[in-house]
Amino acid sequence: MSFRIALNFEDGVTRFITCAPGETVAEATIRQGVRIPLDCREGACGTCKSFCESGRFLLSDYLTDALSDDERAEGFVLPCKLRPKSDCVLIIPAAFSTSGPGAEDREVVATISALDLLSPTVIRLVLTGPVVAALDFLPGQYARIFIPDSVESRAYSFSSLARDGHVKFLIKNIPQGKMSGRLARSAKIGDELRFTAPYGSFYLRKVERPLLFIAGGTGLGPFLAMLETLENNKTALPVRLVYGVNTDEDLVELALLAKFKETLPDFTFVACVASSADAGRVRGVVTDHLPPKEFFELNADVYACGPPPMIAAVEAYFRAYDIKCANLYYEKFLPNV
Ligand SMILES: Cc1cc2nc3c(=O)[nH]c(=O)nc-3n(C[C@H](O)[C@H](O)[C@H](O)COP(=O)(O)OP(=O)(O)OC[C@H]3O[C@@H](n4cnc5c(N)ncnc54)[C@H](O)[C@@H]3O)c2cc1C
Ligand code: FES
Description:
With 337 residues, this protein is an alpha/beta fold. Helices cover 19% and strands 32% of the residues.
């Protein structure tokens, strides 16, 4: 039995959709071509936060970062994790718009053209095929790649532009991980992978100010795609990257970063390791190596990407030292929740 969901948009428009048993409201809107604000679709970012005026539902598997206990008690919900158990009325904080019928995420298939263990902890996946050659995305955005023989998918940021029909991803190798473990253990060149793309609001905006990129672990990936774009656009503005990892073996793509240092007019980077066995390495975490205060006086745009604790540490550092920037954009590599 389906439920009838009323969506009240902020411009006064109301639209009704049907939600099948077990389906989330977000999935139902996509299926029926109605747009609501969505980003991670995993109960992690809070982009879809809406107010539920009436109805019974299940709401689970989300992070309190996205919806606090107080917000939930007030009646706020996350449509990407909301499974109705009765008809519901939701207030959506956006104007009504449609994506047209059949605008649900289109699954495409690409072939693995390279799969390298850059280190014991980092996999570089390269996909190729006609769909890749025709792929449109903004540098910093991500794809949802399906685990082979499964309906489950994982989010991975593009770590390159789609060039010559190839696109890359940097993936943390988690031995017990359903996706990364599978890639490391049994996937091989020539295998097909299904994915949908592009997603996300973490992408390189118009470049008109100095840029600071802060990467944690495989959070380096989207910055490699952004640096490629900056290389193509020949920006002369200062670009700084602070790249932090836990151990020496997490440190990858240093040669590529060194190449960007050669090709970009004003790019420098620091690669730091929290616990290093190598005397030659820069030690510490990203907040130990942020540029001096004078850099921030240039009104920089700051982008941070990586594990949630790193993003929290950067925000706390900015607050503690009263650091101002023009904009702070971030992407949290949340585990699948
Ligand atoms: C928007 C977005 C973009 C992302 N982009 C990338 C990317 O470019 N590269 C990338 O490597 N990851 C990225 N992630 C994380 C990625 O989607 C997966 O969550 C991650 O790869 C784990 O998937 P898995 O199937 O290998 O492990 P799972 O089977 O999902 O998890 C196995 C176990 O490992 C734990 N775990 C999950 N993630 C981590 C972690 N990072 N460190 C330690 N333990 C963990 C889980 O809690 C679980 O216990 C992104 C996440 C989001 C939300
Ligand atoms: S889209 Fe719902 S929490 Fe991110």
